[in-house]
Amino acid sequence: MKIKLTSVYVDSQDKALRFYTEVLGFTKKADFSNGPYRWLTVASPDEPDGTELQLALNNNPAANAYQQAIFQQNQPAVMFFTDDIKGDYERIKARGAAFTMPPTDVTGSTIAMLNDTCGNLIQLTQLARW
Amino acid sequence: MLEREQYTPGPANIARIQKDRGPNGEEKWTLVLVRELRHSPEKVWEAITDPAHLREWAPFVADGSLGTVGAMVKLTTVAAPKPTVSEARVTRADAPNLLEYNWGDFDMRWQLEAFAGGTRLTLWTNIGHRFIAMGAAGWQICFDVLDHLLSGTPIGRIVGPDALKFGWQRLHAEYAKQFGIEMPKWPPQAAEKS
């Protein structure tokens, strides 16, 4: 068994694809449609065959309520790991993303949080080395 | 802030594990910390219940006093990697001797006994097996900071990543050895790259 995919709900797949590729720097991996349904994933250019992130259209009222509630609680919908959080923060910020938390030292890691403009907060995490 | 820079924790010698059996025969571990303070139980009581005092030394911030039975108080864990707020209910508050409440899933029991002109503080907390040495190391540093605060020479809260700058890792390793538990292999890269 392997974990190959995780999903994040977005309010618009076109907008999400732009944000996750042009602003965050991921690359489009899969893009298929079947009628109104669209299977859309991105992957990291550092790990093209690594775990994919599905950008799933949030047209589900239950998921919508959940998404809004955790957003209001400042909880990230998805977390990405990096070895250079300061560099990524500057790069992503320069491309216009709004950070709700700059890189901040916490127990075991340095984290930053940004708004993906599609209904989610995203956390960037760099693990501390003891 | 020179006091803070010069601070370094002593040997790991204030904590032990109390082992009990749960209702289904499972082993239950409770971390027990004993710390002697050169201040009256009344003074220590204020420091463990009053939000303005707690924020100077404790690993959480309280939005109200913990000193009243039945009080519901929001405790925000400082420097947690995700916003972590838990609602504590004070179940016992016999000032200035006995205080009980929950911090998330942990039961916290504080006992203050007058002792040689000061106070012997005992904390029982049922932190899980995997984190018991970490908790012991963290509380030991917090109690040193508390002692400085009560003595009128505050050095500022040392919790979360700050503790790593003040010898937390050594304390953690000493407690893990004393308790006979394996050092958690976390974070995963540390062993290879540091």
Notes on the structure:
The complex is a heterodimer of chains A (130) and B (194). Chain A is α/β, with parallel strands linked by helices and 130 residues long. Chain A is 25% helix and 42% strand. Chain A is built from 3 helices and 8 strands, in the order βαβββαβαβββ. In chain A, strands 1-4-3-2 form a 4-stranded mixed sheet. In chain A, strands 5-8-7-6 form a 4-stranded mixed sheet. The mean pLDDT of chain A is 95. With 194 residues, chain B is an alpha+beta fold. Chain B has 6 helices and 8 strands. Chain B has an 8-stranded antiparallel sheet, with helices on one face. In chain B, strand 4 and strand 5 (85-94) form a beta hairpin. The radius of gyration of chain B is 17 Å and the shape is globular. Chain A binds chain B through residues 73-76, 105-109, 111, 123, 125, 127-130, and chain B through 79-83, 160-161, 164, 169, 186-190, 193-194.
Rg of chain A from C-alpha positions? Answer: 15 Å
Number of strands of chain A: 8
Quickly count the helices of chain A: 3
Flag low-confidence runs of chain B.
188-194
Instruction: Specify which chain pair forms the largest interface.
Output: A-B, 16 and 16 residues
Main β-sheet of chain B, in a few words?
A: 8 strands, antiparallel
Biggest pleated-sheet summary of chain A? 4 strands, mixed
What portion of residues of chain B is helical? 25-40%
Helix/strand-derived category of chain A reads alpha/beta
- Terminal residue distance of chain A: 31 Å
**Helix and strand succession of chain A?**
EHEEEHEHEEE
Which structural class fits the helix and strand makeup of chain B? alpha+beta
- Give the helix tally of chain B: 6
Strand order of the largest sheet of chain B: 1-2-8-7-6-5-4-3
Oligomer: heterodimer
Beta-strand portion of chain A reads 35-45%
